[in-house]
Amino acid sequence: MKINFEEIGDRIRRKRIERHITQEMLSEMSGLSIPQISRIECGKSDFRMQALVGICNALQITADLLLYDVIDTAARPQFERDLARIVDDCSDAELRAIVDLAAAAKDILRRNFAPPADD
Fold this sequence. Notes:
With 119 residues, the chain is mainly α. It has helices at residues 5-18, 23-30, 34-41, 49-59, 63-67, 76-87, 92-112.
């Protein structure tokens, strides 16, 4: 499996800008140098797990937001079970709200991140 570091770097850059954080600030918050941050955001550098965790913690995001297109599709059944567990005890009104939120989240993801379509 090939990891697209340019896509991951672009997602990091978008989240950093969305949170009004400069590369210098992210550098201080993550413990990485400014040149490292720049190389990561440009996709010019692969990086270690420690760097990924530092960036995620600094941006207050989870790694799956950055790595969703490299997650094995065999994980899909687990995601579906997780969703079923989440909505299992919901009222009809709560379930409707969750469906509406999920549809909106899906739309936002597709507009902003445009993951590759499944084959």
